[in-house]
Amino acid sequence: MQLQEIAQKLGCTYEGDPHLEIHGVASLAEAQVGELSFVSEARYLPLLEQTQASAVIVAESTPLPRPLPCLRGRDPRLLFAQAIELFYQPYRAPAGIHPTAVIDESVQLGEGVAIGANVVVMAGAKIGDHTQIHANVTIYPQVQIGSRCQLFANCVIHERTEIGDDCLIHSGAVIGDDGFGHIPLADGSWRRMLQAGRVVLEDGVDVGSNTTIDRAAVGETRIGRGSKIDNLVQIGHGVKTGPDCVIIAQVGLAGGTKLGHHVILAGQSGLAGHLEIGDGVRVAAQTGVTSDIPAGQTVAGYPHQPVSEWRKSMAALRHLPDLQRSLRKLQARVAELEDRLGLDRDLKQDP
Predict the structure, then answer these.
(1) Are residues 164 and 303 in the same domain?
(2) pTM of the prediction?
(3) What is the pLDDT of residue 86?
(4) Boundary (domain end) residue, out of 87, 103, 135
């Protein structure tokens, strides 16, 4: 594909030979002749001195350290993401039903559905147009799946789950399994509470590999439109998120917690149950959230605190060994002075 053609498809300007042939995309460090790369931040500009890329995507006003064909736009990272789509298309199975699939006669299938090997679809399920169900997926009764979804190999969708249009469910994900509900009894044992609710994924939700989203005892667990969930995330029963939330790997959300819109939970953060997290909140990696957070805050640490306070605490913590040594020296010096003054040791205060 020629440089000028790529610029036209991406809706951006170009500099250099319009007929330059580009056959792929790569990072600056790994790019070879004939490949397109990008620079999203000024600190990476020195890499342009060594890159073998034939062209790069840069911001509109970014100066280049050496002459190099380029595409220019407001958001180089977004342009590069769009460029990847020009050169790479993910696998799509051909429409049809594999002979080893087991599909209940009551199942409703839309047009152009693809169902792979060893898939099981149980009674009352509905699958929308052009949705792809890959190998070994199990879909329990009364599940509804919208159009243009992708369910990758070995995921499990439990009863009554509702999945909107344009959703991605990656391998090993479990959607709609029982919430973790148990009642303590007088003899110290536990009685399991049946989970009669459901999970709802609104349109455009992505669910990563080996992520679990539990259904509620009553009511529903709901993931808002356009939200993106990474691998290895645990979402408890009755959780509700607003639209366009991002939940990164190894996050744990206890039951009943509610997220506003555009909330970001960074990796390995954990949220206690029945909390209210406001719109636009950002939670740093490994943060432990123990109480409600108002809209717009960025928090970090355990227990969580505003990120500015947490940074001050971490800066002070790095000096703790020096402070401890100084304190011991001061204690020794005070003791020495008291001995010289002949003070009664019984009157000394505990440091």
Answers:
(1) yes
(2) 0.88
(3) 96
(4) 87
